[in-house]
Every structure is written in C-alpha cells, then in structure tokens.
C-alpha cells in the first residue's frame, strides 16, 4: 500500500498528497479526478472510484432488470417505452416515427383520416418480408392490409367485388 504522504506524480507533474485518494472498493490509490463527484460527502467526491462505481451500477442493473425498467419509465415516461418498442419492432426511433407522422400531417396513409378520429395512435406499416417501414396507418387500414396478406391481387379483387355489388 502506498503512503499517502509520499510524493505522487499527477497529470500536471505536481506531487500533492491531497490530489490522491484510496478507493474503498478496490483499495487502489488514484488521483481524485478518478472518483465520482458526490455533494453528500464533505470532500465533494465519493469514496469509490469511477471504475468501481460503473461496475457496481452495471451489476445492479443486471440483477434488477425490473427495477431498472421502472426507473427508466419514471424518468422518461411513455416516451421510453414507445421508443424501445419502435426500435425493437420496426428498427426506427420515436423521432423517425414523429417525422413520418408530420410528413403525413397526422393522417392515415390509406384512408386519410386524422389520428384524432381514433382511440389508438397510428400504426407503423411495414413489409413483413423485408421489415422495411412504409407509412403510418390507422388500425382499420393496417388490419385490412394484414388480412389481405399484403397481396395486391386480393385487394384488387376486393375492390372489384365492392364495385360489382354496389347497392347505391
């Protein structure tokens, strides 16, 4: 163990014992700049170094995934959950979703109705084979495309059927 009163080189070339500290976790003697700032301590820095602090946080997050999820929900609210869902499911961020929404002026790309006419947000329509995002659709139009198995022939036959059986 190093004597804290002995000279230690610092980045600036000075040797001052007050610039060093011993980490209570790994017992390493380190420069004070390698410690977490913490106003609750009279010295203004934590008793564990940055490396140990990061390791403790990573370990806690690994062993407490539900608590971490709740922390993020509290911090970011629905934004975090929606962003995670969009990224995982469609490979887009919430910002990209919002850009699509703005481009479409908040309307379904098929029926043209505004999102305010629906209880749910517009759905991300994507090609199920390639995963490529197309546009935003209302739930009804999204289900229609899905039930038709994204097959334009089926959709064209449905149009012909409706035209042939127009009762007006």
Description:
- This protein has 168 residues and is an alpha+beta fold.
- The chain has three domains: 17-61, Wheat Germ Agglutinin (Isolectin 2), domain 1, CATH 3.30.60.130; 64-91, no CATH class; 104-168, His-Me finger endonucleases (His-Me finger endonuclease fold), CATH 3.40.1800.
- Helices cover 42% and strands 14% of the residues.
- The protein has helices spanning 50-63, 65-76, 78-90, 94-103, 139-147, 152-164, and strands at residues 20-22, 29-31, 35-37, 45-49, 123-126, 133-137.
- The chain has a two-stranded antiparallel sheet with strand order 1-2.
- Helix 2 crosses helix 3.
- The longest helix is centred in the middle third of the chain and has 14 residues, at 50-63.
- The chain is rod-shaped, with a radius of gyration of 29 Å.
Note the topology:
Layout: E1 20-22, E2 29-31, E3 35-37, E4 45-49, H1 50-63, H2 65-76, H3 78-90, H4 94-103, E5 123-126, E6 133-137, H5 139-147, H6 152-164
Antiparallel strand pairs: 1-2, 3-4, 5-6
CATH architecture of the largest domain: 3-Layer(aba) Sandwich
Structural class by helix and strand composition: alpha+beta
Tally of helical runs: 6
Taking pLDDT < 50 over at least 5 consecutive residues as the criterion, the unreliable ranges are 1-10
Major sheet strand order: 1-2
Name of the CATH class of the largest domain: Alpha Beta
Which fold name corresponds to the CATH topology of the largest domain? His-Me finger endonuclease fold
The SSE order reads EEEEHHHHEEHH
Strand portion: 5-15%
Q: What is the helical fraction, as a range of percent?
A: 40-55%
Which radius of gyration do the C-alpha atoms yield?
A: 29 Å
The total of beta strands comes to 6
Distance between the termini: 94 Å
Number of domains: 3
Which outline best applies? rod-shaped
